[in-house]
Design a protein that fits this description.
alpha+beta; Arc Repressor Mutant, subunit A
């Protein structure tokens, strides 16, 4: 029994990777740590799991405590368990990710989070712990998911133009998309509803507005529909520099 006790000295934590889309830019929510270890550094909103708490509930609690965000759908990325990933001892973390509308969610920090701020993915520098590795893995999963599920629509306003939709996909995929082929592909899916409205108050020529038909998507999915954005090589352009 004494030999087995060493297996019960590992702690667990959760780390949340929250993506948002703003002004054509993909962003991630980070907190500035107000205590050691890594005091003063930017990090993902994460903390230890209580002994009497399940993993999913912990992710929700930690996100609310550190950022004030509630009712956010969180999806697991994977576990990170490098032996030396935490300076205070062995800690295995479960990473979660989500996409939310930045404008619809107000931040309110507490606990050891000194502040919470949205950062452009391209401007994120060194993070605490192994959070740079966790962020990288979450971005790869996001890129894969947005090609196979219409999750990107959650980051757009209820009414949007095809240009706004294309800019969203370009920001997430970090690649330029062929305008004509992108529009042809996305419209052929039959998931966009033409609401017979045009943009208002814009300096350029007003564009037609569309709305994502979630009910139709769910109906098609039940019938075996497969959402696939990148089955044509012509759709994808070059990676942005």
């Amino acid at each position: 029994m004494a030999e087995e006790t060493k297996f019960f000295k590992t702690a667990f934590s959760v780390d949340n990777v929250i993506f948002g889309f703003d002004d054509g830019d993909l962003k991630v929510l980070l907190i500035e740590r107000g205590e050691d270890p890594y005091v003063g550094m930017w990090a993902l909103p994460g903390d230890l799991v209580y002994p009497n708490e399940d993993i999913d509930s912990s992710a929700t609690r930690v996100l609310k405590e550190l950022t004030g965000l509630e009712n956010v759908y969180l999806e697991q990325v994977k576990a990170f368990g490098a032996v030396e990933r935490h300076p205070l001892g062995r800690v295995i973390t479960i990473a979660y990710y989500s996409l939310i509308k930045i404008s619809s969610n107000k931040l309110k920090t507490s606990s050891f989070a000194k502040k919470a701020k949205w950062h452009s993915i391209k401007q994120v520098e060194t993070l605490a712990f192994d959070h740079s590795e966790i962020l990288k893995a979450s971005i790869l999963l996001l890129k894969k998911s947005i090609r196979n599920r219409p999750i990107g629509f959650e980051l757009l306003p209820p009414k949007f133009t095809l240009t706004q939709l294309q800019h969203l996909y370009e920001a997430v995929l970090d690649a330029e998309l062929d305008k004509r082929n992108f529009r042809k592909k996305i419209l052929s899916m039959g998931l966009l509803e033409d609401i017979d409205e045009m943009q208002e108050g814009v300096a350029h020529r007003p564009a037609r507005l569309y709305r994502f038909d979630k009910q139709k998507y769910e109906t098609l999915m039940a019938e075996g529909f497969v959402f696939e954005l990148s089955d044509s090589k012509k759709l994808m352009g070059t990676t942005k520099q």
